[in-house]
Amino acid sequence: MSxxxxxxxxxxxxxxxxxxxRMISGVLVQWGFEPVVVGDGxxxxxxxxxxxxxKLALIDWVMPQMDGPELCRKxxxxxxxxxxxxxxxxxxxxxxxxxKGLEAGADDYLNKPFDEPELKARLMVGRRILELQxxxxxxxxxxxxxxxxxxLTGLTNRKEILDILHRExxxxxxxxxxxxxxxxxxxxxxxxxxEFGHLFGDEALKEVARRLRSSVRIYDSVGRYxxxxxxxxxxxxxxxDVLIRAEEVLKNVSAxxxxxxxxxxxxxxxxxxxxxxSTNASEPEALLSHADAGLYQAKKSxxxxxxxxxxxxxxxxxxxxxxxx
Length: 325
Description:
The structure is a single chain. This protein is an alpha/beta fold. It is built from 10 helices and 12 strands. It folds into 2 domains: 10-148, Rossmann fold; 158-322, Alpha-Beta Plaits. The protein has a 5-stranded parallel beta sheet, with helices on both faces. The chain has a 5-stranded mixed beta sheet with strand order 7-8-6-11-12, sandwiched between helices.
């Protein structure tokens, strides 16, 4: 879920009385609010379901189409992540009515005719609560992102990319699809660090990660698998598809040198691919082991290449044009 912008000064005013709408909207403008005015509960509900609707609402109890308590109940059914702070306005002054309004989901309650300073104070409290809630959501999302993403490259981390793999294999089993993976390793990464330093090495990791991500479809997944290794997941791809796509990734990574602080170096990768078929399902660990064996063969055969080993450890390619020798 996106945390969205911080709550602003926009406020929904829902009241069927033209006199109250005019009077209340006038003081709201004086206090620095931006009122969005409607005349019945149905209009208010429609507005609140729109994108970037006001998070602060001043709602009359008695309205045509939908009354205040019913509107409050609908607002609360949406859940806490799209919270709207509601002040219920009413001419009712009984304690039972107060309880009924709060049970329906109102955050606060104010009798008509109201005292202007009291209304302003309650709206200021509502805005402060919304700001605190927004800050909490932003913090929560930052923590969630930190728990699932690699801080250096911005890709999903090892745990998350493996979780994605398990989910894709489960979906492929249900829908009887194929899933291909590729384990990617930066060639001679230790030499890059030794020759250019760790800052350049970090830049190489970040740039390779960016090029990997830009080389795939929106529904493919790329994660940092560990060190200078990455895991790529290609739903719906058979062996021919994944070898072609892997070759495109290979070329994209090595197309231009990586530069930092006036220094540059061409960086290449090696890739091992494996294909999972629902008709011959194996454990995710076996699939990863198969791709890792292909990666080992790519390293052994000279690097800067894509390899796939069948179960007899024979290397397979789409055609000779894909060989990078």
